Amino acid sequence: MAAATTKRPKFDNFAEPMEQLGGVPLERILMQPPPGTATEKDVLAAERLPRKRLCEPVDGVLVEKAIGIRESMLAAFWVHRIHDFLGENPRDIVLGADGMIRTFPGQVCIPDVRLISWERLPGDEVPNQGISRIVPNLAVEVLSPSNTKAEMARKLCDYFAAGVELAWVIDPKTQSAKSYTSPDKFVPIGKAGGLDGGSVLPGFRLPLKQLFASLRRPRGC
């Protein structure tokens, strides 16, 4: 996995950090601690607030993760299906959005779903860490209305630079997806298609119709 350090940039005006953050809506940018000073301790403190806030620090700025009930439901469906698959193929573990990962010093990402091979886990045991240093093999992001293209492009660059091998970006609005093997190389998946685990999760495939059907009440219930 990549070992890298990041140097926090100095900005001349507020437009520059906004561009660095990918143009995310202002309501997702926390003012406490002051932008540019946030640390991993602040990330964990925000999670413990009465109104739990999942935040990703970007260049010392806390950016609240965009997630709603539909995105949470789709992520839970992914976790459930992958967990069932791993019951017969126990080569990996699957985690939801509460699991934070440190991509680089001072940079924390929160995939909606992540898959980690046992080979990446030291001592063949899940570590007890608030923010994990274990980079996943697969990262899944379910788009929310406030996610921007620039924000997702930045996250994909961070993921692959840190050692992620495969990333799935799910778009509930169009009921489609993209399967990335690098920040700028992807396969588009339409409504009638499905996502394939490839060499990262051999044998796993899920049609998008099944995924998005989970948002509707089953017939007869």
Question: What can you see in these coordinates?
Answer:
- This protein is α+β, with helices and mostly antiparallel strands and 221 residues long.
- Helix content is 24%, strand content 25%.
- It has helices spanning 15-20, 40-47, 69-88, 149-162, 208-213; strands at residues 55-58, 61-64, 92-95, 100-104, 107-109, 113-117, 131-132, 138-142, 166-171, 176-182, 185-189, 194-196, 205-207.
- The protein has a six-stranded mixed beta sheet. Strands 5-4-7 form a three-stranded mixed beta sheet. The chain has a two-stranded antiparallel sheet with strand order 1-2.
- Strand 4 and strand 5 form a beta hairpin.
- The longest helix has 20 residues, at 69-88.
- The radius of gyration is 17 Å and the shape is globular.
- The model is unreliable at 1-6 (pLDDT under 50).
**Overall pLDDT confidence:** 88
**Number of alpha- plus pi-helical segments:** 5
**What top-tier CATH class of the largest domain fits best?**
Alpha Beta
- Record the strand order, biggest sheet: 3-6-8-9-10-11
Q: Secondary-structure element order, as H and E?
A: HHEEHEEEEEEHEEEEEH
Strand residue content: 25-35%
Q: What's the alpha carbon Rg, rounded to whole Å?
A: 17 Å
Q: What's the β-strand tally?
A: 13
CATH H-level homologous superfamily name of the largest domain: tt1808, chain A
Largest sheet: 6 strands, mixed
How widely separated are the two ends? 47 Å
Enumerate the spans where pLDDT stays under 50 for 5 or more consecutive residues: 1-6
How many structural domains does the protein architecture include? 2
CATH topology of the largest domain: tt1808, chain A
**Name of the CATH architecture of the largest domain:** Alpha-Beta Complex
Oligomer kind: single chain
Bin the helical content: 10-25%
